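Quick illustration, no need to memorize.
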Amino acid sequence: MKKFLSLFLSFVFIANSFLFGQNADSEALNSENTETVSNDISFNVAPSADSNYSEKSGFLHENDGKKHWFTAIGGVLFFNVGLASYNRFVLGSGWAQVGPDEWNRFWEREMTYDRDWYWTNFVLHPYQGSFYYQASRGSNLNVAESFALTLFGSAFWEYLCETNAPSINDMVYTTVGAFSMGEMLYRLSLNADELSELFGLCVNPSRCWTQLWTRQKPRGTTHNIHELSLKFGVGAAAARSNLINCSNLDYKKDEIYPVFFNPSVYVVYNDPYGHDSNEPYSQFELEISASAGKGSGEGADCQYKDLDKKLMYEIRILSNGMLFARSPRFSENTDTTIGLVMEYEFDWHQFYELSSLGPGLALKQRVRFENSNLEWQLHGAWNVLGTTDYYYYHRPIILPDASVVRNYSYTTGPMLNLKMRYATEKGYALALGLRAYGMHDYYSQLQDDTAAHSAGWEWIGVLNGNFEIPVSKILRLGLADEVYVKRAVYKKVPDVFQVLNSGSIYAKFQMK
């Protein structure tokens, strides 16, 4: 596995260098040839024309375009040492009590998977790595150089700041996941400055470090938000689980979630259709949503099991970013994008757990009719390292013992994302979506000692539909329905079939 990780990280770094590397000459050329595209869409990396920091009399002055390596490396070390010190001396965490035993010949420590909290591993670790990445980007390093420093920061943390064994999954998500999250936040931060610089600093706190030492605002463009909406919904859900060929077991098959509330934000950075660029994440889509409501009375075997039975919750992060895109012209009434895409998805529901991370191919097209538009996207990607949960341990039928590795499985396999939206000139809209996954479970997952090296496949589909009617230029009302289905086939443990259906009504504020 150590060889696999080394090969994988080497491949990612080489691919990033090949696709995304930019030398100082090209950056200087960009800064001299700032170009703004119509419809508030721009793809250059020069300082924005509407920047308020061109006067050298203020604290912040015009960006000089030079690479500030010491600022970038200092930001990585400052963050790691500061966070490690806080965990050790303030929180008193046992895993943070590092010393000579961990530092002596640290390179010989064997890497393994960890079983940390789901939220920590697949959201907080990418967010931690995004600090390394954004500090590097804010110091005028390009994507490949920023990725390399993120890899350094992640390895520094895993080998020198924890008593735990270095984690394979953390290294992947604190580098590749951090690249996805970090580049989106870096770009959104500059656009947030349009409302308030304080808002921009909240989106990207690493700017407090880079702007302090370089006295320069990060390079980048503004006015890139193509679509922005806020949605507030209320709904209910019902679920059912079956263990195949286990009719003799007594367990609760049906669950009801009588009511939940669901706020969400959806951002489209630059027009997805007709996009042509060599810059990674010069176009991306990001949806963040949360749900809270009355629980079903069933819960996970966790530290807060009583609360888990009473509370229905969901945290969802769905994103995709173009790494490289071309826009072939097929006809006068179509706008098409073809290219490489990176998918990062996190879905943590009270009923299931699902995450994925990996590169792939994307085809996006908008067809313009006389009084309407049809937009559709098809993404095919490979999930490098994802997760699912096994029914036994999310809704325990048998109690896990010390032989259980973790309460979710690490997976790999193909994934597909299909989206369609038909909108009329009067504002009526119908949208359909499908997320599909073929998850192959690695060995040594949730099974007991008798099946320690068992593996299997989990086939998962998430189908959703929305219908919206306009009330005003900003406000839209809608109906939504979503179906989650999983069919899991294992070698040495019972197979599983699960389904969850959620319906809701919502109000959406179309800000842009």
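Residues 249 and 423 are 49 Å apart (CA to CA).
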